[in-house]
Structure formats: structure tokens, C-alpha cells
Amino acid sequence: MAPVVVMTLCFGLIGCASSSSSTKPSDGDGDSCSKLMRKGNQVYIDIGYAGDGRPSATPDKCKVKPGTQITWRNPGGDLRPFEIVFPGETPAATVDRRGLTAQMRDGRYKVVITAGNKTGTYKYGITANGISVDPEIIIH
Asked: Highest taxon of the source (predicted)?
């Protein structure tokens, strides 16, 4: 069994906050969820890979308003697709699928959802290179 990495993603009325920041371009995906969300309704979470191919998400904490578009994306030009899997209910406003396979957009693989209005904690996994990690989402 692979080691588990925990990530918290919060949906609420506060905005995004984290101690880390990203200097990567948004590619039209809004602001990094590591920055305080002051205006706009789009944020992104960067998917990175360890030397063994294990995926991870940056930032590891994020708060957004209901209705915010959230984009998980790998490094630009990286040809490794990934999947976001919700084993239970999905936090997305319009997506019923349990697994969301990244699609190539703007030179990188991305998964895009829109946060719904239902508060709660949502477990999800990131799968890439045959390796899965299990972060979670909290909407409040």
C-alpha cells in the first residue's frame, strides 16, 4: 500500500490562504489558491511529482467561495496525465462523475470543477504514474 499524503482544500466564504505562494503563471486559471482570494472566482492547484512519480498538490490548504472554479493542473508541457477521484460525493456543483481524468488544455493537463454550495468534507485522491495519494476537501 502506498503512503498517504493529506491535503485540505476548504470551500467557504473566506478566500484562499496558505503560507506558501506560487510564482507560476495562471494560464487563465485565476489565482494560485496559495494567495488570498480578494476578487475573481477562479483558483488553481498545482500538481507536482516526486522523483518516483508520486503526485502531490500545492497548496495543501485552500479556501474558496461556493461557485468558484477550481483547476488542478500539472507543470506546463508535462505529458503525464493525472486523475482526481472522489470516492464518495463530489464537491462540484455540476459534476456527478467520481473520477475526473485530466484533459490537455493550454499546454498542460488540467481537471476543472466548480465548487457547489454544499458545505462538508470531501475525500479525494490524485492518481498519476500508477501512484495514488488521498487528500481531502473541506467546504464550510
From this structure: Bacteria
